[in-house]
Give the backbone structure.
Amino acid sequence: MKEVFIRDDFIKLGQALKLSGLVDSGIDAKNIIQNGYVKVNGEVETRRGKKLVVDDEVCFNKNSFVIKKV
């Protein structure tokens, strides 16, 4: 599984999707999140500003990644 590394205690969902490379822009992230296409820890998440912490798992379009601390 792909890992996204953060330096702070959390990262917002929209930022994490961009950092992972699964979306190209914040607008793309906003659209797919608000339309219910993203799951966090197995649950549909519609808040772009949802704070992700270490070991949270994000799934979108048969791709997934987990948040890890640097």
User: Anything to note?
Assistant: The mean pLDDT is 97. The two ends are 17 Å apart (CA to CA). The beta strands are 2-6, 11-12, 38-40, 43-44, 51-52, 57-60, 63-69.
